[in-house]
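Whiteboard transcription, Tuesday session. T.W. wrote the structure tokens on the left side:
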């Protein structure tokens, strides 16, 4: 079993981005600028956005963090998005999800200028991705593709099972893997899938993005499978100072012994999500 080290790969990619930024600045052009809108004080979102701000510093980007309280109105949020859409200093921006339930999440996503939608969630960017036009690809699926390619994990002709059908991970992941160049045969499983264990056990590669801690157990995995664990659920723990720890969707200790490759949680997919956001921002700046 080999551990897929997302921290290591993300550091390599950050170094590559930093070199590009130095070239851009040396030509007298402006630094790429990523902005993030954060609503409320969700612990996971706070941590994630802090990592994004730090990563921007590491590669030489400018970054802005715009905060709103949970009681922000939809109108106020849309007004700020319109302002960022028209701000020539900002190359790309994100609205950190989740947002409060009184705000229409889809309306917020669609309000973002597709040319600045570095999360890759706008329907125009999703549509371009589906038909294979170069576009901003959702950060987590893009990061997973980078991991597979940098570890030289063969996808062509392989049976891939994607657990989960969210618009952020599951669906774009299944589309990307089935496209020419990656050429996998993809099955998407979800809460209504019957005979789930037998389907997953046929997989050469399992992408677990179902959001249930330790859902994938060793009886669901065939010998030599590749496991990509996207899960990051906070569970209470007496063993940590914070009082909680991150659990993946895969029962790591028992599944790892059957795998050829596996991502840890944390330190696997998470760092790649952030670095994919940086890559999208660099692409936006170049355009």
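and on the right, the sequence the group agreed on:
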């Amino acid at each position: 079993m080999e551990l897929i080290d997302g921290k290591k790969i993300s550091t390599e990619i950050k170094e590559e981005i930093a070199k590009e930024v130095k070239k851009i600045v040396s030509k007298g052009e402006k630094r790429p600028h990523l902005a993030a809108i954060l609503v409320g004080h969700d612990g996971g979102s706070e941590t994630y956005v802090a990592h994004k701000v730090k990563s921007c510093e590491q590669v030489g980007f400018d970054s802005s963090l715009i905060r709103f309280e949970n009681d922000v109105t939809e109108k106020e949020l849309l007004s700020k998005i319109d302002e960022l859409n028209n701000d020539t200093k900002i190359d790309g921006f994100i609205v950190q999800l989740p947002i409060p339930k009184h705000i229409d999440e889809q309306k917020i996503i669609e309000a973002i200028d597709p040319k600045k939608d570095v999360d890759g969630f706008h329907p125009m960017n999703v549509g371009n991705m589906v038909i294979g036009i170069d576009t901003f690809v959702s950060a987590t699926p893009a990061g997973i593709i980078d991991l597979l390619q940098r570890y030289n994990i063969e996808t062509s002709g392989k049976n891939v099972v994607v657990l989960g059908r969210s618009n952020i991970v599951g669906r774009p992941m299944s589309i990307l893997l089935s496209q020419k160049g990656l050429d996998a045969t993809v099955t998407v499983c979800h809460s209504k899938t019957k005979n789930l264990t037998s389907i997953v056990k046929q997989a050469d590669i399992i992408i677990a993005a179902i959001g249930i801690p330790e859902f994938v157990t060793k009886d669901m995995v065939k010998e030599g499978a590749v496991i990509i664990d996207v899960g990051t659920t906070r569970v209470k723990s007496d063993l940590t100072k914070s009082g909680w720890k991150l659990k993946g969707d895969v029962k790591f200790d028992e599944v790892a012994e059957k795998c050829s490759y596996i991502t840890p949680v944390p330190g696997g997919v998470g760092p790649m999500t952030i670095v994919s956001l940086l890559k999208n921002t660099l692409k936006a700046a170049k355009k």
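Someone added at the bottom: The first strand starts at residue 2 and ends at 3.
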